[in-house]
Design a protein that fits this description.
The chain has 140 residues and is of the alpha/beta class. The protein has six helices and four strands; from the N terminus they run αβαβααβαβα. The protein is 47% helix and 16% strand.
């Protein structure tokens, strides 16, 4: 429990200082609690959150990443498909198992730049690096 509190505090500090300008990447070994930590953090620190688990995501959501040129449409559809209302600067979107869908990793730069919501990514960094061939990803 002590470890979780320390990590939680680090994420909270990061949110307070950098959230509008950077996504938070929780990387580590499998089955150590990254997703649980992200969800608990979202529940405690935000008005609402959307969890997109790329290991079980619906095709409709995956298709949204094919063209993110119209972010108003992207966010409207995301809210419709998940039945979660997003609030500007009060909501977070969690990309769980991000290494399974590199297009989402590529989109994060544009989503963060938009500034409406915060973002948390979870995944294994080794898997993320292995699965980004032929896409442009933001610098870490």
């Amino acid at each position: 429990m002590l470890f979780k509190r320390k990590v939680y505090k680090k994420i909270k500090d990061r949110k307070d200082k950098y959230a509008p300008n950077y996504a938070c990447l929780l990387e580590g070994a499998r089955r150590v609690g990254k997703t649980t930590l992200a969800i608990n953090f979202a529940k405690n620190e935000y008005k609402s959150y959307i969890l997109i688990d790329f290991s079980i995501v619906k095709k409709e959501i995956l298709n949204l990443f094919a063209d993110i040129s119209d972010l108003n449409y992207f966010f409207m559809q995301l809210q419709l498909f998940t039945d979660v209302k997003l609030y500007e600067r009060e909501s977070v979107i969690i990309f769980d198992e991000i290494q399974l869908f590199p297009k989402a990793r590529q989109a994060i730069k544009h989503l963060v730049k938009d500034g409406r919501y915060d973002y948390i990514e979870t995944g294994s960094l080794i898997s993320i690096k292995k699965n980004v061939k032929d896409i442009l990803i933001p610098s870490e």
